[in-house]
Amino acid sequence: MPATSMGHCLTTLPSLRDALEVVSGKWKLLILVALATGHQRFRDIERSIPGISSKVLAKELKDLEQHQLIRRTVQEGPPVLVTYEVLPYADSLDPVIFALRDWGKNHRKKIMGPAVEA
Amino acid sequence: MPATSMGHCLTTLPSLRDALEVVSGKWKLLILVALATGHQRFRDIERSIPGISSKVLAKELKDLEQHQLIRRTVQEGPPVLVTYEVLPYADSLDPVIFALRDWGKNHRKKIMGPAVEA
DNA sequence: TATCTTTGCTTACTAAAAGTGAGCAGCTAC
DNA sequence: GTAGCTGCTCACTTTTAGTAAGCAAAGATA
């Protein structure tokens, strides 16, 4: 173990990889948060995440569905209505999301901080 | 707020984005863990992360250095010796790494679990 | 002395992924 | 009727990732 406070044990890497396969990438966690904050419709999600495109959103939603983190529901119409929602299992990602959010908040302060003071 | 337990406030998204810009992608966190577990040399890191290529490793190391998470040190030789180490600031990512690791561990169980049981 | 290996990369090349802009069928609103 | 919204998809370009090879400097092996 090196002189850092980390002390990750060697079994960290495989688990981390497993997680990263599901969750890494710019969009997946953002989409989950969007869903969790009440955006259930395709266009709605799209608008709530600036920068994402229909194409990527469609693909990411499919991935998330395959990983059992969200559910797609079609209410036959007319008009046909498609709804996305986070499944309970997705809540297990909360610690990840919170940790990232907190780190991001702090990191921004670290980077912008000095220039912004006084 | 929807009927999930998440209840992310609206300011989650920007912070999450900030974090994801620094940390998302398949390799960065794995590299940090590799460094933290005692792999300090380029080849050493490369070998400790199966699947990564020299090219990507070189690029990721540059990124991490720019983000002030690691330091590259050249000890003039001969032989010239290049060493990478995590900076103390990188420890602030521990909660993220732990959360992901734990989730990954659990997710694997969820996916493999049923098939593996007795 | 020759050659083989290791180190820390870089360079071409290819494959995959992400981003861009348009569009489309089905419906509603005016 | 024509303009708009919805949930996408398609064709295309750009960016990123991955693959294989190689290279200079040094050390070890023979």
TrEMBL record, chains A, B:
The keyword Transcription is assigned to this record: yes
Keywords per UniProt: DNA-binding, Transcription, Transcription regulation
Domain HTH hxlR-type residues, every copy: 13-112
One family name in Pfam for this protein: HxlR
SUPFAM superfamilies noted in UniProt: Winged helix' DNA-binding domain
Domain of life: Bacteria
GO MF annotation terms: DNA binding
PROSITE patterns linked: HTH_HXLR
Keyword Secreted: no
Protein name: Helix-turn-helix transcriptional regulator
